Structures are given as C-alpha cells and as structure tokens.
Amino acid sequence: MSIDHQAAPRAIVLLSGGLDSATTAAIARAEGYAWHGLSVDYGQRHRFELTAAARVAAALGAEEHAVLRIDLARFGGSALTADIPIPRDRDPAEMESGIPVTYVPARNTVLLALALAFAEARGAADIFIGVNAVDYSGYPDCRPEFVAAFSALANLATKAGVEGTSRFAVRAPLIEMTKAQIIRRGTELGVDYGLTHSCYDPAADGRSCGRCDACLLRLRGFAEAGLVDPLPYATALS
C-alpha cells in the first residue's frame, strides 16, 4: 500500500525476524503507519534471526531499521543465551506446562524499554510487538497483563508522557490469535515468510532444526492454516 510518509503517524515495531514480528510489521503498515524497525542483538544463539529481520524490514518498507547490541548473554539464565540444551520434540501439552528454559529473563521488558526510548526520540506514540498468548511457549512477558502494564509505565516514565505531548500505547495485534490465524493474516497482507527465521537451534547453514518449540509451533501453524512453510528444515517432519 502507498503511505504518505509526511502525514502518516509513526510507529516503532520490535522486529525479531520471526513470523510473528513480520506479521506485526505488515499490520502496522496496513494501518497506515510509517514504521521504524528495532532489532536487538542480545547475545542470542539463533542470530540468524537478525539477518532475517533486515530482510523483512526492507521488504515491508521500514522507514529505518535500527539494530542495537546489548549483552544479555552476560547474565545467562536461558537456553537462548547460555550453554543450556534447547528442548526438542516436545508435544503441545509439554509446551503449555510451565515456563521453558528458552525464557530469557525480562527480555520483553528490556526490548520494550529500548523501543520506548526509540519511540520518544522519533515522535512515535505506538509501539508494536508481536507477542502472542495463545500458541506460545508459556512466557510470562507475552501476556495481555504485561502489555497493559508496560503501556501504563510508558506514560509515567517519559517526558512526552508527563508533558502530555504524546500518549504511548503498546500494540500487540497478535496477542489473541492462533499461529494459524497469524499466518493467514500475514499471507493476506503479502508477508513473504520465506524471509523470516524462527528456529532456536539452527544448523550452521541457517536451516531450521524442525524440532525446537519455535519450529514445532511454526510448522503446526502452517499445517493448520493449510499452507506450506517455505523455509528449509534440517529435519523433515511428517
């Protein structure tokens, strides 16, 4: 769609490079926002997602794509940032029970704080994040209560919020959607999911493992949507 970049409202989109954040960016664009992408290199072992984020930003017409480096691996405490095995081959019941070792301590709080600073600097009131509370792995910072709480904090913690020049809102358009619904919506909006990356434990050449929680949720979503995942997998699943 064509956007009048001078008149359009600005938004920040947290862009991981996965299918959820790509769909979220497409929704922001469809709603008429001139959007700025923010990706964070936080020491994650699946750093292929940062290359995917750059591809998605270019394909979906980001005004700019900022990549920040912070070292959450220094803290550890997660299979995504430390030498802890990535869970594999878990069934849906296992994924829905408890918080997995792939949870990164306070990650979305940290990412949203960075996005809030970016938003205030760019004059953007809306921050889009692709969190989901239906088909997800039990992360506490993907819940509606967290999104609402951070929106309230954003307006207490900023000059723009205190002076009333901006009213910040954290937008989570996917939060009540299944993975299949997300994929269908993104497909309607022209998202090329071949540009994205979801795997927590990719092969050296970047191919998805097909066995971690992220891969299993993604593959199930494509199957339920009646579509074929365009990504190559190191392990083919039936």
Topology, please?
Elements: E1 10-14, H1 19-30, E2 34-41, H2 48-59, E3 64-69, H3 92-95, H4 107-122, E4 126-128, H5 144-156, H6 159-163, E5 169-171, H7 179-188, H8 213-225
Parallel strand pairs: 1-2, 1-4, 2-3, 4-5
Helix pairs in contact: 1-7, 7-8
Structure characterization notes:
- The chain has helices at 19-30, 48-59, 92-95, 107-122, 144-156, 159-163, 179-188, 213-225; strands at residues 10-14, 34-41, 64-69, 126-128, 169-171.
- The longest helix is centred in the middle third of the chain and has 16 residues, at 107-122.
- The protein has one domain (10-192): HUPs (Rossmann fold).
- It is of the alpha/beta class.
- It is 36% helix and 11% strand.
- A five-stranded parallel sheet has the order 3-2-1-4-5, with helices on both faces.
- It is globular, with a radius of gyration of 17 Å.
Given helix and strand content, the structural type is alpha/beta
What's the tally of helices? 8
Name of the top-level CATH class: Alpha Beta
Overall pLDDT metric:
94
Number of strands: 5
State the main characteristics.
alpha/beta; five-stranded parallel beta sheet; 8 helices; Rossmann fold; 238 residues
